[in-house]
Request: fold
Amino acid sequence: MIERYQAPKLEEVLEKSLHQKPLSILEIAYLLGLKERNKISQVFQTAQYVRAKYFENKVFLYGFVYFSTFCRNNCTFCSSRTSNILALRYRKSESEILKAASLLAESGVHLIDLTMGEDPFYYRSESGFDSLLTLIHKVKKETGLPLMVSPGVVPKYVLAEFARAGVDWYACYQETHNRQLFVYLRPEQNYDSRLKSKIIAKQLGILIEEGIMTGVGESLSDIACSTEVIRALGAHQARVMSFVPQVGTPMSNRKSPSRLRELMTIAVLRLLFPDRLIPASLDVDGLDLLQERLEAGANVITSLIPPRLGLSGVSQPSLGIDEGFRTVQGVAPLLEQMGMAVATNQDYFHWIRAEKSALTCSLANYEVTA
Ligand code: SF4
Reply:
């Protein structure tokens, strides 16, 4: 006899999530796939309620310095892929990076995110990573702010050096946890090494961020499975971003997906991980839909970029940057209008300190092996 699929009841699923009871893959996929306006807004309202419980109305702001767009990898979705002859390439000097970081610090961001492709200049040898570490030390000293690094998959000993240098966050996104799709999106890269780099970073006392992308051929169950991996990793921050087609890449002709999927994923992440950080990225639509992302439950605004320094976003190289929209001043009015507020540096330090002290830091006993 064929059993008929019975959709879960929304109220019951939301009630379960409010009591922190685990949701099944089916229930998560059900939430992600909701189409009815009233049900969607019920999910968003619950996500906002949950966020307020842990973070009140406070939002954290992340400054973004994408300092090298060179990369040895060939991800099908990414403009910086090595074979893209149309990519906008640059590698900022140390003084340019320091200038951008201090401008961001002065503007009032809570964190500096140093991001690069897997640039052969830094990956060429130990001395390449040495210059990255020197840069990290200088940015920390110059800004006094928490630091996130997103340099790709680096050797273990480099992660250990990051920890010693006081790096607070390591971000390294799988983009999908469907292994077959991973092979398509990140050809010739190793799924397990990428995942393991986050586990090692966490063992070393560094907070970790995992990320997924929507509109790249994933199913709702794929996203639901990603949330399981995010839980298993114990990621401190989980981001979702919609795919944006990049010129000169194999996916350039694909359409950018409806933002509803990203918004529902933000809301589901909030319900599943009420006290974790969930970003609304300006990198997809600039200020457009920032309100919707916050209404879905995000509590971090990422990709604030200082104008007119020739710095690029990841999926939107120029959107709103030189106009100064992607700045603290650019987003503050919206927050005010929404009854939300920029958190203080104290709030952010406090959150980070509590999370870091909860990690079992094995740095002292960590044996460095390349
Ligand atoms: S996604 Fe990252 S690793 Fe892949 S090509 Fe782009 S910069 Fe390189």
Remarks:
- Residues 71, 73, 75, 78, 80-81, 117-118, 152 surround iron/sulfur cluster (CB under 6 Å).
